[in-house]
TrEMBL record:
Residues of the RIO kinase domain: 224-468
GO molecular function: ATP binding; metal ion binding; protein serine/threonine kinase activity
EC number(s) stated in the UniProt entry for this protein: 2.7.11.1
Protein name: Serine/threonine-protein kinase RIO3
Cofactor(s) the protein requires to work: Mg(2+)
Family: Belongs to the protein kinase superfamily. RIO-type Ser/Thr kinase family.
Entry keyword set: Antiviral defense, ATP-binding, Cytoplasm, Immunity, Innate immunity, Kinase, Magnesium, Metal-binding, Nucleotide-binding, Phosphoprotein, Ribosome biogenesis, Serine/threonine-protein kinase, Transferase
Localization per Swiss-Prot or TrEMBL: Cytoplasm
Enzyme class: transferase
Chain intervals with Low complexity compositional bias: 1-18
InterPro entries for the chain: Kinase-like_dom_sf, RIO-type_Ser/Thr_kinase, RIO_dom, RIO_kinase, RIO_kinase_CS, Ser/Thr_kinase_Rio3
SUPFAM superfamilies: Protein kinase-like (PK-like)
Catalytic activity, as annotated: L-seryl-[protein] + ATP = O-phospho-L-seryl-[protein] + ADP + H(+); L-threonyl-[protein] + ATP = O-phospho-L-threonyl-[protein] + ADP + H(+)
């Protein structure tokens, strides 16, 4: 279908006439298309094969280049699966509405009613929304809805007298068959038949239907396997569907492009959409899409596995849900920081593995990382004291250790430092919490000392200043040993009492317990 109907709406087509903004598939081309079905099929096949090859060779590159770039006038329709799913959603909605009407008609005022509940379609998009921590309401009318050709009513004919048209009329029936293709499995590529006013004969329709059913069975088998392996690409069709929904619901105005592609996440910039009564949408948003391969998140296990907040849930989760948990962790941690008044992105919404937050920067330009910005010595000093302050606040007020704090995760914006990237942050009593804090202190201390801040504490002094602990070791090895000893005391306490210390203490006093 890419080769015909969609071409008009392809991402590189630039801004087009107004009708493009209404229909992501584009309107039927007015110039006649002189390509046969066979051409279309083989072209599509070739494209698919090429894509497959590219994906295998440059998985990262393709992921970045293929960003969703969903905007009002310009929607990436390269994924047939996504298109099909959107069509399917629309179909399901109408189907259910019709079912409700029939249910009402049959039951009437009768005291005994028949429920059609079991015949409802399970909406592919909403089917797993129960797994979400936070959901949002889709309030806006779907502007991408394809106009359906009129079909003949039940009685089998329309019109009067000599203008009568029966359901056997070739044109009407053909159009109807085309419309009915929507009923096929979502994975089945039905093309833009409706937009093109395609008329299918019964014979062709039946053959397609047969094919679609066998494809559905085949893909169901394939799908089972695919579903359980973690997506290599962050912006897989499901994610795109999610992003599409955010734009479609009016929450986001447009998604303009990709800000960053990391190993664990892809970050997009978006303009915020309509602020509603219960949700304030910032004018510019950052969308962090969590992705990870199995290997990478094995490495990160240690952050989450031992975090008691997630402990009970961890063992029961599949990889897909664990990725969601990263997003969830980032959301919770950002919220804590926000409450303590630490400059950081404000959470807008969490949807599965996609976190929308306020954008730090302006006019699509993200604020520079501390490592990339050249500050005057005065600003550098200011940044240092602010960082020290934030680390203390984070530890004391938020009960958190950043655990990946460095000049890479600090942005310089509006004359101050903003903390980002807190999905891996843990509470200080995490079994490795103090080690993480020490590492953070080393990074911060080195950065500001190298940056010429004479007042900057060394890593050990900084550690004590942040944690309030009083570890006296004057060399790195002993200091580290004392940190580990403290962590051990905490762990033993957990073993014996089933709960953690509320805080650490190393100055001779017995540890403070959380009774
Ligand atoms: P990763 O785990 O990939 O490092 P980050 O949260 O650090 O994820 O985001 C990657 C990059 O995206 C950041 O270095 C920053 O440049 C940009 N970024 C992330 N969140 C925001 C935001 N809220 N506003 C502006 N830029 C952001
Ligand atoms: Mn980062």
């Amino acid at each position: 279908m890419d080769s015909v109907g969609v071409a008009a709406a392809a991402p590189d087509a630039g801004p087009g006439p107004a009708w493009q903004s209404k229909c992501p598939w584009g309107a039927p081309s007015t110039t006649s298309i002189s390509c046969s079905l066979a051409d279309v099929m083989s072209e599509q096949l070739a494209k698919e094969l090429q894509l497959e090859e590219e994906n295998a060779a440059f998985p990262e590159v393709v992921a970045a280049a293929e960003g969703p770039f969903i905007t009002g006038e310009n929607i990436d329709t390269s994924s047939d699966l996504m298109l099909a799913q959107m069509l399917q959603m629309e179909f399901d909605r109408e189907y259910d509405a019709q079912l409700r009407r029939e249910e009402k008609k049959i039951n009437g005022d009768s005291k005994v009613s028949i429920s059609f509940e079991n015949y409802r379609k399970v909406h592919p998009y909403d089917s797993d929304s129960s797994e979400d921590e936070v959901d949002w309401q889709d309030t806006r009318h779907d502007p991408y809805r394809a106009d359906k050709p009129t079909t003949t009513p039940r009685r089998g004919f329309i019109g009067k007298g000599k203008d009568i048209t029966t359901k056997h009329d070739e044109v009407v029936c053909g159009r109807k068959n085309t419309a009915r293709m929507e009923n096929f499995a979502p994975e089945f590529q039905v093309g833009d038949g409706i937009g093109m006013d395609l008329k299918l004969s019964n014979q062709v329709f039946n053959a397609l239907k047969q094919h679609a059913y066998s494809e559905e069975r085949r893909s169901a088998r394939l799908h089972e396997k695919k579903e359980h392996s973690t997506a290599e690409k962050a912006v897989d069709p499901k994610t795109r569907l999610l992003l599409y929904k955010m734009v479609n619901s009016g929450m986001l105005e447009t998604i303009t492009g990709c800000i960053s592609t990391g190993k664990e996440s892809v970050v997009f910039h978006a303009y915020g959409g309509n602020t509603t009564e219960d949700k304030v949408i910032p004018p510019e948003c950052a969308i962090k899409v969590f992705k990870t391969t199995l290997n990478e998140f094995k490495n990160r296990d240690k952050y989450i596995k031992d975090d008691y907040r997630f402990k009970d849930r961890f063992s029961k989760l599949n990889p897909r849900k664990i990725i969601r948990m990263w997003a969830e962790k980032e959301m919770h941690n950002l919220t804590r920081m926000q409450n303590a008044g630490i400059p950081c992105p404000q959470v807008v919404i969490l949807k599965k593995h996609v976190l929308v937050m306020s954008f730090i920067g302006q006019d699509q330009v993200p604020a520079p990382k501390l490592k990339d910005v050249t500050l005057s010595s005065e600003d550098m000093k200011k940044a240092y004291y602010q960082t020290l302050n934030m680390m203390q606040q984070l530890y004391r007020e938020c009960n958190l250790v950043h655990a990946d704090l460095s000049e890479y995760n600090m942005l310089w914006h509006d004359g101050k430092v903003w903390l980002i990237d807190v999905s891996q942050s843990v509470e200080p009593t995490h079994p490795h919490g103090l080690e993480f804090l020490f590492r953070d202190c080393r990074n911060v201390s080195q950065f500001f000392q190298k940056g010429g801040v004479a007042e900057a504490l060394n890593e050990r002094e900084l550690f004590n200043a942040v944690s309030g602990l009083n570890i006296t070791a004057d060399n790195e090895v002993d200091f580290q040993a004392e940190i580990e000893a403290l962590e051990k005391i905490n762990e033993d306490h957990v073993q014996n009492h089933g709960k953690k210390l509320s805080t650490f203490s190393s100055d001779g006093d017995p540890p403070i317990f959380d009774e």
